[in-house]
Amino acid sequence: MKILAVDTATKSCSVGIVDNESLLAEVTIVREQTHSKHLMEMIHTVIGLSGLTVSELDGFAVTRGPGTFTGVRIGISSVKGLAVASGKPVVGVSSLDVLAMQASLSSYLICPLLDARRGEVYCARYRFRDGNLKKEIEEQVFPPEKAVRDLNEACLFVGNGARLYQETILNKIGKLAHFAPPFQSTIRASTVAHLSMNRFENADTDDVAMFVPHYIRKSDAELNFKGKRQTKL
Question: Are the C-beta atoms of residues 124 and 100 closer than 8 Å to each other?
Answer without folding.
Answer: yes
